[in-house]
Amino acid sequence: MVKKIEKRPKKEKSIVDRFTVLKKIQILVFVAPVVLAIFCYFLLPSNSDIPTIGLGNSLTFKDIFASGNPTLIQCVNSTIPVLPYTHSLQKSLKSLPSGSSVSIYGFNCHEEMANKKNFFDLFRIPSVPLHESFPYLFLLANTLQPKAITIQKSSTPQFLAEFIIKKSKPKFHSIINNENLNSTCFKLGGCALIFSRSGKSISEKTHPWIQSVMEKYRSIRFSTFGGNYKMLSFHSEIETSKSDPEIVMIRKKENEFFISSRNCDEFTEKSVIEFLSSLTDSNNFDDKFKLLSETPKLRGKKPSKTEKIEQNDAENELFSENNKKTENKIKQNNK
Q1: 75 CB-contact burial (10 Å; exposed 0-12 / middle 13-18 / buried 19+)
Q2: Are the beta carbons of 225 and 233 closer than 8 angstroms?
Q3: How far apart are CA 36 and CA 33, in angstroms?
Q4: Which of 192, 261, 300, 332 is the most buried (most CB within 10 A)?
């Protein structure tokens, strides 16, 4: 005989059970966003790590640019904040040995500054509309023209961070004509002009310590002037010293030109730092700099006394020959 299996009737949920389930769902809905917010706060980069220039702080673009320190700015506005890629880039920079020296800021590149120009107008860069997906980044370093950082699909934050460190390295500016002198030494911060009276070659290879000095004084443009065939128009205003090479500071202030030189018999890292520190740390500009009577220029080397005599003899000889030719022409015409 087969036993019949009796089906047990389904037990209906009581009102209390239904209320308990509903309450659990409500708690889950309330707690989930809180948990997610805590997760994002601790594990994802925070916007507060990257400040925006001029937004609730005393930072100004002019001060940041004039410092010469490596700075990365992302163009932002009221709807586009500092983007996640920029935060990832900041983490990659901090992981590099010298990456911590690079500051990152948000900046409204389309907003007018105190000089009535926006970022693009100031540096004559084509204006671009901002995008929500990827950031527009510019590297400021050594008071030079900002460099646009192009982000490609293959550009990882780590790769881009290494590229930024390389591009922010200060370099020598070679002075070979008055155009170079103007573009290098008559800009913001002035320049430290290093030259050799005997025409010695000057570079980071001949004096390796110059690189660390340039990184210490990024607001100053370091330039080299080599060769004896050129002469500085203000050479007589430079302090007499036995140092070779020598360094002199040139600055432009309100359409006037100033120089500062030193009375030192050695060209070493210590002596150069002492000289530059005395200029950058001093509040008394007039005591440290000498006003020039004319715009600094590069001129041809002045001839020696022997060269002057030879030149005069050559000119006299040429003059005599021309006179003879003129006399012969007159005689032929009179015939």
Answers
A1: buried
A2: no
A3: 5
A4: 192
96/307 Cα distance (integer angstroms): 58
DSSP-derived 3-state class of residue 291: strand
Chain mean pLDDT for the chain? 77
Q: Closest Cα to residue 75, out of 142, 123, 143?
A: 123
Pairwise CA distance, residues 331 & 335, whole Å: 6
Tell me the pLDDT tens digit for each residue of 78-115: 899 999 999 999 999 988 888 878 999 999 999 999 88
Q: Which residue has the tokens 């950031």?
A: 135
Report the b/e string of 154-179 with b at 16+ CB within 10 A: eeebeebbeebbeebebebbebeeee
Average the pLDDT over 45-54 and give the result.
Answer: 69
Sign of CA dihedral 228, 234, 240, 244: negative
Spatial neighbors of 301 by CB under 8 A, at least 6 apart, are 228, 229, 230, 231
On the 0-12 / 13-18 / 19+ scale of CB atoms within 10 A, 202 is buried
Largest distance between two CA atoms of the chain: 165
Residue 281 sits at the vertex; the CA angle it makes with 279 and 286, to the nearest 5 degrees, is 50
Q: What is the pTM of this model?
A: 0.69
What is the tens place of the pLDDT at every residue in 271-319? 999 999 988 765 666 678 889 988 988 876 544 444 444 445 544 554 5
Is pLDDT at 72 greater than 70 in this prediction?
A: yes
